[in-house]
């Protein structure tokens, strides 16, 4: 699965959704001035930028395992403490943050429970640990249209519906297994407008994430068939795509 890609490619693929989602997610997590906050799996900084807007760069840290994303985020927000690290091994001390957030990350952790437990470790007692994952299982993901068409054309395709946290109630279950307290779940929804079909389609060909890997692995003929069928299914441009994410908030 590929995330070692240029930051601008990821921004065109997922940033168009993760930026507005970051606003709703930070609201749900209760991020407010005076807090110190860690963004786990920051990518090129969709959520990080929103956290900086709320609490100031000096009070925000971020980690991501992808060197291109880390480099891009350091350039974008030079005053933020940005480090290369995985969620399961955070390079911070116990209780360093008032809140630790992971946007669209838990389903890609090698061990989601360990990752959430590590997020709790670096959060002060009583502080907030929060995470969100697209509703891949319920068809609410912004990627669902493309995955649905892919399944129609190839019934054996393996989509993202089975990933951790991608179905209702699973993030709450993982948070409980990680030892978190006062676990609360919700569904966050955002909407993005696309001026043309190609604006929507092209980022899927960049090879990012499970869907990008799948599309890149198709031959030219099958890729063209997928594109054509998506164009038939989607409304005439301009059109809007809705994305919904399951979210969980808990106390360390």
TrEMBL record:
Residues 38-130 form the Methyltransferase type domain. InterPro entries: Methyltransf_11, SAM-dependent_MTases_sf. Pfam families: Methyltransf_11. CDD domains: AdoMet_MTases (cd02440). The keyword Methyltransferase applies. It comes from the Bacteria. GO terms for molecular function: methyltransferase activity. One of its GO terms (biological process) is methylation. This is Class I SAM-dependent methyltransferase.
């Amino acid at each position: 699965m590929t995330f070692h890609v240029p930051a601008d490619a990821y921004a065109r693929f997922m940033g168009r959704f993760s930026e507005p989602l970051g606003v709703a997610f930070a609201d749900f997590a209760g991020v407010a001035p005076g807090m110190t906050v860690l963004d786990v799996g920051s990518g090129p900084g969709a959520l990080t930028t929103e956290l900086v807007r709320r609490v100031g760069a000096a009070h925000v840290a971020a980690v991501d395992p992808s060197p291109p994303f880390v480099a891009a985020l350091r350039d974008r927000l030079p005053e933020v403490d940005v480090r290369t690290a995985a969620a399961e091994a955070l390079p911070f001390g116990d209780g360093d943050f008032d809140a630790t957030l992971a946007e669209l990350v838990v389903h890609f952790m090698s061990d989601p429970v360990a990752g959430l437990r590590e997020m709790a470790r670096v959060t002060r007692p009583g502080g907030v640990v929060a995470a969100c994952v697209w509703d891949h299982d319920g068809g609410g993901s912004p990627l669902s249209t493309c995955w649905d068409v892919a399944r129609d054309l190839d019934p054996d395709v393996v989509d993202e519906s089975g990933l951790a946290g991608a179905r209702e109630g699973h993030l709450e279950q993982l948070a409980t297994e990680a030892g978190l307290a006062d676990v609360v779940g919700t569904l966050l929804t955002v909407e993005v407008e696309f001026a043309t079909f190609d604006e929507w389609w092209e980022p899927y060909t960049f090879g990012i994430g499970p869907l990008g890997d799948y599309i890149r692995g198709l031959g030219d003929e099958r890729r063209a068939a997928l594109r054509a069928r998506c164009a038939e299914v989607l409304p005439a441009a301009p059109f809007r795509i809705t994305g919904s994410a399951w979210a969980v908030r808990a106390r360390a």
